[in-house]
Design goal:
EgtB; Four Helix Bundle (Hemerythrin (Met), subunit A); DinB-like; paralog of FGE (formylglycine-generating enzyme); gamma-glutamyl hercynylcysteine sulfoxide synthase activity; monooxygenase; binds fe (ii) ion; Hercynine oxygenase; globular; four-stranded mixed beta sheet
């Protein structure tokens, strides 16, 4: 029995372990591998929790936008098999006949319920078997592998790949559970109170900053290479736009005024008959929403979520602003002008703790604005990490000098003028998959993701 299998998963929930992971690699390969195993275990427990529901709900498709949950479950194991067992360790396929079923590029989500999917029990057995062999491979890695030149082994990259992949699917599963409309499937929790008042916008002076991933060996290809960018001065909202502020846009007739919308956004709004964020409705003077199967009044001080890029863009125009570019967003989030260096997070390089950000499904909602003063960036912007993914004005494009790794389908095939970049992670994002340089992307009409936004505006000449 692998010793790594006995690692207490609880260790991985201590965020300081995440911070220590990469420094541990340099001194103690055994401790490094123990931590990876603990993190893999923690991610798996989360996947199993979200799929610990009736088989009927697992195999059903709750929305054409999403896979049946049982597909996600077996897919994370299949991805792990492909990358760790076959690509890294050179093993033969355990079940070659299922590979195309779980290839995300072979079948669009809408078609997945019609595939001969593994059933819930079979899927759990399959992924547990793969995981056992993955831990054996991990245990067999030596310090020379971790420090060596092979890009899949160096710094344990391939384990970071499959771990972050599982975390991202866990967030996708939560979006599916929200779309299911069923109560009682997703736990809620407590969050710190908000802080009313304070400046609405923060100022970011003109100048160069360093964009993209620094030393983090688990950063994705699309975060590289790090590069300098020179930006004019701008203002950016201190907090994400609240549901209350968004409701004012709705009540001001924002959805009936083409002048606030891009031509495509207006067409989308009209075709879809959209009149408010997804899951919202109005009764009398009160906005209500459905959140994981329960109806509740929309909290005015919470960041708005479940809005498309089109809606975010229209709101920003109505407010006399625009969405930040992703470079502006990243500078406001992670740049430390005094030190002249980029931080991993707004507050520094320490892994996210409970006072910094609302990440990792502490509760099943964003925290009220002002809840995380300790998570502020050097420029005073708050809640940039966690709560809601933030739409930016940027298309998902490669950084200068981009090189696809370890496979084209991770990022490269999505580059172009179809997807918009989202930054920062949501309440559902695992801390391991959230950082200042992390780039997410989606189509501008998507609303099932836990996405909101904040606005920015160029600084007038006399301020710049
Ligand atoms: Fe995937």
């Amino acid at each position: 029995m692998s010793t790594l299998r006995n690692t207490k998963a609880a260790e991985a929930t201590d965020a300081s372990h995440t911070a220590a992971l990469h420094t541990a690699a340099l001194d103690d390969a055994a401790a490094f591998k123990e931590r990876i195993a603990a993190e893999l275990d923690e991610g798996r427990r989360r996947s199993l929790t979200y799929t610990d529901i009736d088989d009927d709900l697992l195999v059903r498709q709750h929305s054409a936008l999403m896979s049946p949950l049982v597909w996600d479950l077996a897919h994370v194991g299949n991805y792990e098999e492909l990358w760790v067992l076959r690509e890294l360790a050179g093993a033969d396929p355990t079940r070659p006949e299922i590979d195309t079923i779980y290839d995300a590029f072979a079948h669009p989500r809408k078609d997945r319920p019609n595939l001969p999917l593994l059933g819930p029990a079979e899927a759990r057995t399959y992924i547990a078997g793969v995981r056992g062999r993955v831990l054996d491979v991990l245990e067999g890695l030596g310090e020379a592998d971790l420090r060596g030149a092979d890009p899949l082994r160096a710094g344990g990259f391939v384990f970071g790949l499959v771990l972050q992949h599982e975390h991202q699917h866990d967030e996708t599963m939560l979006a599916t559970l929200q779309l299911s409309g069923r109560p009682g499937l997703v736990r809620d929790g407590d969050l710190p109170p908000g802080r009313p008042g304070g400046a609405e916008e923060v100022f970011v002076p003109a100048g160069r900053f360093r964009a993209g991933a620094g030393a983090d060996p688990w950063a994705y290809d699309n975060e590289r290479p790090a590069h300098d960018a020179d930006l004019p001065a701008f203002w950016i909202d201190r907090h994400p736009v609240t549901a209350g502020a968004y409701a004012a846009f709705v009540e001001d007739g924002g959805y009936a005024e083409p002048r606030w919308w891009s031509p495509r956004g207006w067409r989308w709004r009209a075709e879809q008959g959209v009149t408010a964020p997804l899951f919202w409705w109005r009764e009398g003077h009160t906005w209500w929403r459905t959140r994981f199967g329960r109806a509740e009044p929309v909290p005015a001080d919470e960041p708005v979520q479940h809005v498309s890029w089109y809606e975010a863009d229209a709101y920003a125009r109505w407010a006399g602003k625009r969405l930040p570019t992703e470079a502006e967003w990243e500078k406001a989030c992670g740049w430390d002008p005094a030190a002249g260096r980029a931080r991993a997070y707004p507050w520094g390089d320490a892994a996210p703790g409970p006072a910094h950000a609302n990440l990792g499904h502490r509760a099943s909602r964003p925290a009220p604005v002002g809840a995380f003063p300790a998570g502020a960036s050097c420029y005073g912007a708050e809640q940039m990490i966690g709560d809601v993914w933030e739409w930016t004005g940027s298309w998902f494009l490669p950084y200068p000098g981009f090189r696809g790794f370890p496979y084209r389908e991770y990022s490269e095939v999505f580059f172009g003028r179809a997807h918009r970049v989202l930054r920062g992670g949501s309440w559902a994002t695992h801390p391991r998959a959230a950082r200042a340089s992390f780039r997410n992307w989606d189509l501008p009409n998507r609303r099932q993701i836990f996405a909101g936004f904040r606005c920015a505006r160029p600084a007038p000449k006399e301020e710049a």
